[in-house]
Amino acid sequence: MQRRPLLAGNWKMHTTIAEAEKLAAAILQSPIPTDRDVMLAPPFTALNAVSRTLSGSSVILGAQNVCWEVKGAFTGEISPPMLKDAGCSMVIIGHSERRHIFAENDEMINKRVNGALHHGLIPVLCIGETLDERQADQTFKVLEKQLRNGLNGISLENGEQLIVAYEPVWAIGTGKTATVEQAQEVHLFLRDLLAVIYEKNIASQIRILYGGSVTPDNVDELMSQNDVDGALVGGAALKAESFNLIINFKK
Ligand code: PEP
To answer: Does pTM surpass 0.90?
Structure first.
């Protein structure tokens, strides 16, 4: 099964509106190969402006989180229709910073995934083990729990409706990358698990991204792995020069 590579930039809590527009415009300066998808996830405040900058291009706009409710007394939250209104078609959910700094749990993340799908947004469900969990040989157990709980009760018509991002917590923003063997081993495990949760055909369509200190120097090797379908990039997505090199990874 040929899955279209996806290179996604998570800008986290960086960029003013003007900086975001400038970064998005700089990324559009180099042509994007037609055989891959690119997604940018600026902060909420810059979504609308970046949407305007990206209009007419193939670049997809994503958000960094979403509420499961449509509207109401949910101070600080943004709803799926609001994200669609701002031009988004994807949304990152369950990022390790949400889980670890803001105490989001699997149940909340599951509701967010459900809300996103219900409104036609493609969730990028992030899962990953901590260093302690890896060292205690708990990696697969932790990932299975996060994936099963995150997708609890969620049905899919096809695998293109969902994206999974494997982001080992110990590799995010640390400069430590999983080896390509570690990444492929986990991605294959996740794909097999997705085939159990859904069915083989659907699992073979679901894109599984790797995230954790992806740079222009390691992206080619990571992307050479059978089950690595793309990258979720933090630090290296904040400079057009490095993100463009990542977008142009060599097969
Ligand atoms: C991320 O924010 O999802 C991430 C992987 O960050 P970094 O690339 O900086 O490790």
So the answer is: yes
